[in-house]
Amino acid sequence: MGLGWMEIGAILIVAMLLFGPDRLPGLARQAAQFVRMVRQMADNAKSELSRELGDEFKDVNLRDLDPRAAVRDVMFSAPPPPAPDVKRDRVLRPGEVPPFDSEAT
């Protein structure tokens, strides 16, 4: 989410220009109440979800279900073991039948 000091300063300056110094504290208070309400709603949703899922899912972390985290884990995990050494450059002799696996088709 990376908001640095420069971005916060720019937002404050734009807010001062748009709303003026008189209305800014009231708007900040309303924004804080809104953020608090959204956090409370998210906490209530998480607790209701865990209550509905039951005891067998009480240790499930919702962040573990994030597909981005799964991709990140696969991308930055240890490299897979090398494939077994298979000779693939075998040339068939004239009249030789290529290998066929009847169970694979």
Fraction of helical residues: 55-70%
Distance between the termini: 51 Å
Rounded to the nearest angstrom, the radius of gyration is 30 Å
Q: Kindly estimate the percentage of residues that lie in beta strands according to DSSP.
A: under 5%
**Overall outline:** elongated
Helix/strand-derived class?
mainly alpha
Number of strands: 0
Q: Unreliable segments (pLDDT under 50, ≥5 consecutive)?
A: none
Whole-number mean pLDDT: 83
Give the ordered list of helices and strands.
HH
The biggest beta sheet, please?
none
Count of individual helical segments: 2
Task: Tell me what the structure shows.
- The relative contact order is 0.04.
- Helices cover 55% and strands 0% of the residues.
- It has two helices and no strands.
- The protein has a domain at 25-75.
- By secondary structure, it is an all-alpha fold.
Which key terms come to mind for this protein?
2 helices
Concise structural overview:
This protein has 105 residues and is an all-alpha fold. Helix content is 55%, strand content 0%.
Layout of helices and strands:
Layout: H1 5-53, H2 67-75
